[in-house]
Structure prediction request, 437 residues.
Amino acid sequence: MDIGVGYGSQRGRLGRQLARAGGKAKLGGGVLVLFFLWLLLGRKKSPATQELAQEPNDVQSLIQEHEIRRENVQYLSLRPPFVNPATLAMINYDNGGNMVMKKDSDYVRLVPERPNSVGYVFSRLPVSLQDADSFEAVVDFKIHGQQTRISLIGDGMAFWLTSQPLSQGDMFGMQNDYRGLAVIVDTFKNTPGKMRDNRGANSFPRVSIQSNNGFAGKYNKDDDGTATEIGSCALHRAYNTRMDAPSRMRVRYIRSSGYFSVEFDILGNDNWKTCFSTTDLAASLVPETPYVGVSAETGELFHNVDLYGIEVHSLKDASGGPVQSIDALIDRLDDRIDAETKQHEAKRRHRRFNKPQKTTTRRTASRLRRSEQRAKQLNKELYNDERGAVGYFFSLVWRLTTYALYTAMFVVLAYIGLLGYRVYRDKRKRRNQRGLL
Prediction:
């Protein structure tokens, strides 16, 4: 059957109108349909993409309330002037690679803006037993350069907590058969197309938390470590922040409760945002007395990575011992607020009407928030969705709708191709007829 001749007479009114329409009109209509489909699908942000999120930080609030004390670990501090003038060696840390230190500078340059460079610093001493059970480390850094397109920079930097100081290697400047944990700031995407699974981010720079127990080659550069990462997030604006203050990374760890968090203050203005947080980190992933290190690497693409300092603090509870349980401390803080609220209300008993106290709201919100987080975690384990069965149902409906719309898009494209073929064939037939006459 020749559908190129007389096909309009066998269709309904709409079909006959389409048949009479010119080729350009049909193509224009198809493009318009595709545009509306793009508005519906293409601009929707994938729910799997995680960015830095402003979240309530229970640990930080406890520190501000003086329920947790921060004691500076002096033997792990790295600050200007960096070098001991008597020995001309770096204070508390060993360095290597292409790292550059300038006299009276407030930073050291781990890698310069040139290809195939490596630079690193590693502490001479590990975090001691009395400090390693609960501590935080803050790294001040800058990633910057002359390149204005972030797709043309690389490779990034890494923060290390390892069982021993590492040697130079091919994993962001360090050996890849380490024992411990690494927080990687990756500035170049090796994975072609969209990442699989993506619990992290498709956009770069991105952060990837990696662990290893001494296996060589566990971290795979070809997939940016997505197959082995514990968690990840996008790190927008980390390159060329155009701020005088350096960016900051803060890592907190409490062994007994499995608490581990990674936060960033990209603009250096004390606006901390959570990248990754868990209360279920296995104690075996962080060495009992970890060494602290920072490294950077460039490949064919490059940028400057400047290190402004490292500060490590041990976290102590009110009695002077290491912090044991975040939940217990939050409950204790809530109980103290509750007691203060009751005492305040007792003084106001003679009044007929009592206004609700802000502290009561704070106590309720704190406990409800933690209860909500536990419920979300349970729903995620059962239904792979924090919203539970309802969220799973609607996500299923959305996926089916998406597949249907993509199918419709394919049909429209196929129809446009068919129309183009018909127009081409009709023109060719008319040209052949004129040649015969």
Remarks:
- The longest helix spans residues 388-436.
- The CA atoms of residues 385 and 395 lie 9 Å apart.
- The longest strand covers residues 304-316.
- DSSP finds seven helices and 18 strands in the chain.
